[in-house]
Give the backbone structure.
Amino acid sequence: MTGVITGTKRLRMLVSHNTLRRIVLSFLLLLTGAVTSLAKEWRGIVPLHSTRADVERLLGVPTIDRSDTIVYEYPQERASIEFSKGPCSVEFSSWNVPRNTVISIWVTPMNGLNAADLNLSQKKYTKTQDKHISEIVYYRNENDGIEYSVNVDTGGVDLIKYLPSAVDEPLRCPEPRNRLRETVKFAQYSNISFAAEKRILDSFGQQIVRYSSANYASAQAYILVHRGRRRRQDEAAARAKRAKQYLVKVRHINPDRIEIREAGDREKPTIELYLVPPGTNLRLSVVYREFAQPISKSVP
């Protein structure tokens, strides 16, 4: 009997040990799943799982507030955080989440982040070439929702995008058939009459309407401004504002669909018109910045 009892105790101990191992392994798998199921976080903020209230509680008042996009500037990085305009039933929405939910975070490193230090293995990241800028390549991890923009000439990371992860894909709004697939440069002009400019803007407005639907804005319009080196510094800027006002008042385009950006100087004031797919910022070889002050002067 003693041997039987001893054997039973050993069996019980073995069963208990195996059960404990299974519990520990299950717990670790749950932890791993919890980590991989959400997108990568930046400073405690997770796309589609954090709100504007979370952001301001963690980071305070933003450096720049543009309603659906806010910017935080730090010595080591600059972050642009985009919020949802609402669920799929709301125009411009790409994710079926409430208004003011974080949908993406774009971080620009300011301290010379080196791509070689990030171990961007192609087993985890998909590598693609930028269609417009030959020296830019992208390393994207769909599962974790993160993308690195790398300059192959310098080896530096120009931009880090924190995006929804693969498990968030069911929240994506349906794409319309007329979705714009890539950035299009629609027109460029300089010293032309307002009558000629209006003909260009009429066509541009038609294309903005074309690449849209009732529940989803599939294209964002950009008016890019190049100031003239030998002309009044505010001339091109004022012309750009007039162009936007024309598109809004005459062509009845939602003003939120038109952004004015200032680019590098040229010999003469120049306006460029672009259509950009949703969720994609206008990205050019020239560095651009938004106007810091409202434009008040009119163009004759």
User: Anything to note?
Assistant: Residues 52-171 form one domain. The longest helix spans residues 2-37.
